[in-house]
Structure of Dehydratase:
Amino acid sequence: MALHHLEDFAVGQTFSAGPLRIEEDDIKRFAGEFDPQPFHLDNEAAGNSFFRGLAASGWHTAAITMRLLVGSDIRPAGGIIGAGFEELRWPRPVRPGDALHIESEVLEVRPSRSKPEQGMVKVRTTTLNQKNETVQVSVGNLVVFRRPPTA
């Protein structure tokens, strides 16, 4: 698959990837290392929590989203280089057995004023479960390189 330079991106363009299934062991393993709260680690504690059952950490959902983005056909030249998020929401928890997929849409493409070899692409990425319920929404800016001038 070809790499996309800044000039290849256009507002409204879409990209997708997935699904990737998340199991109970995945949720507990990630939480044990990065977000060791009872509602991510223990079924009984999770059942008595705000989540009313075992739920993946939002950071786990973000990491899965990143994995799906890397496997998608967005493929910016230079890699997926984040310059920050304008929005990051988790409207619904990820549960054991969920199969996640992503849908990304280009919202803005702008060349850099100070670095002529690159620009920014603003992308909204929605992560959904197997029921097409939204589990994460992010709006982020990616650094994307311009096509090198021909000699």
Q: What stands out?
A: DSSP finds four helices and five strands in the chain. The first strand starts at residue 14 and ends at 21. The chain has one domain: 6-145. The chain has a mean pLDDT of 96.
